[in-house]
Amino acid sequence: METIKTIFFDVGNTLLFPNQDVIYRPLREAGYAPDSNLLLQLEARTKQEFDDRMLHGTAVDHGFWQIFYRHLFEALEFDDKAICQQLVDATRVSANWANLQPGTKELLQQLKSRYKIAVISNADGKIREVLETNGIADSFATITDSGIVGYEKPHPAIFEAGLKSMNAAPEASLYVGDIYSVDYLGATAVGMKAILIDVCGAYTETQLPRIESLTDLERSLAELKDRAR
Question: Within 10 Å of residue 103's Cβ, how many Cβ atoms?
């Protein structure tokens, strides 16, 4: 097994998390305030359902949030299609992903000293600005945004564009993302290695390579290095 030389990161639910104050404002104004445990449970459920749909060709990446918010409104016993669409639209805006977990910047800088690191993300063409606003854009040698490339994960073209931007061999590259059908399968289909960051526990019962936070990535990289020897 070849040693990992380049690490590519997803952004949403991997490096940055939703700004719930902004995204859920219409729901709060209607008198509903979902707690974090419910949101994590629904995220796990949505990922499992979405993966199944993707594998059977009945979903596309940007449909994830329609499924998620449908489940949320069902759980809250609330029915307002206009507010549901407001939440979907707000979640698709890159600027509303502005929750940076403590220690993320420091971890990226540590990784940067030993690996080439970059981003491949499904976004709206503005993910670089968001990373700059959150102070981590300078960690990455390149940032590949589907809104600019014209292809969304899991399409091989966006992974190939990212690899080309780094002059990276796929077999010596690792992709870190959070959705099996989009990130893991998309990356491995072009020959990359992949690991899922599984904060919500969607893949706990699987044999997929997974971590529960970015702080666990160092351990996984050490394990990959040992296997390469």
Answer: 12
